Amino acid sequence: MTALLSRRALLSATAAMAALAVVGAPGPAAAQTAGRSPQNLFLSDNGVHVAGFSSEYGSGWEAANLVPARADLDPSNAIVRPLIWSSAPDAPFPHWILFEFPGRQWITHLVFDNYLEEEADHPGISSKDIEIWTGDDSSALRRAASFTLARNQRDQAVRLEPVETRYVRIVIASNYGHPWYTELNALLAFDDGSRPDDIAARLQADGAVDLYGLYFDFGSANLRAESRPVLDQIAAFARAHPGQSLLIEGHTDSVGGKDANLRLSQARADAVLAALGKQGVSAAQLTSRGYGADQPVANNATTAGRASNRRVTLRLQGQAS
């Protein structure tokens, strides 16, 4: 415990110095004007605040740290000083933090920073399994997504099925093995302007639709249970059009090697095909193909852009054989 407290004291001093260094730095709005990064919604300046939490360590590791101020960000939306929540000692899972917007707000992306300097001295302290709950009544929220964060990595962006909400509850179901504490850095949230799709209508109008309501763990083809509503829509369309062939395309961002991205995109497309097969869609109607990072729909230079590029696309083909 002495070593942990010593480490925390060191980080507190670092945070104080970093805070002094960013006075007068341009905020995200200036960056958006320059075309470098979209506006972060999760800012205390916008009236967003922590409305509740399961526990916190305190002494500089409060839940309120998860909502940064504009002065805490550089023009690319990177956090410029340590802003970390820690659970209380030996607090049981699940941990949770409830965030409240001043009014209903559309969200399409959440970005997690799971990198912690303390991970080196206290292995397993970073958050692992995450759930996202949303709604307008904090006592009756709906689970919107769940996924596993990569261990001790920055810029882990999740592209959500667009949701308009007053509250967001982040539930941390596990960490990477530390017996006493779990930690997480400040969050970012974005709205790219997209809204929920009627998959059948989009297919009939455009011949293809990007499916952002399919959720996978980071770097994995594990398809999460929250993907079921989108899978149900696809299955309903396929059953209503038994003569129609559908191509399931997997796409990634540009991070990582070309071959690895191709394999991941193919594995994710295959996972969707298999899930639809389990729902009774004829194998003769379905084909899967991975494209890796070759067909981006957004700027891979931004965190939100990379999240948009990690997607599955459903495309009409010819007649089913």
State the gist of this model.
By secondary structure, the chain is of the alpha+beta class. Helices cover 23% and strands 28% of the residues.
Describe the structure.
Strands 1, 3, 4, 5, 6 and 8 form a six-stranded antiparallel β-sheet that branches. Strands 9-12-10-11 form a four-stranded mixed β-sheet. A two-stranded antiparallel sheet has the order 2-7. Strand 4 (129-135) and strand 5 (142-148) form a beta hairpin. By secondary structure, the chain is α+β, with helices and mostly antiparallel strands. It has helices spanning 2-21, 28-33, 199-206, 228-240, 258-278, 303-309, and strands at residues 49-53, 84-86, 95-112, 129-135, 142-148, 156-172, 183-185, 188-190, 208-211, 244-251, 286-290, 311-319. The longest helix is centred in the C-terminal third of the chain and has 21 residues, at 258-278. The protein is built from six helices and twelve strands. 23% of the residues lie in helices and 28% in strands. It has two domains: 2-190, Jelly Rolls (Sandwich), CATH 2.60.120; 199-319, OmpA-like domain (60s Ribosomal Protein L30, Chain: A, 2-Layer Sandwich), CATH 3.30.1330.
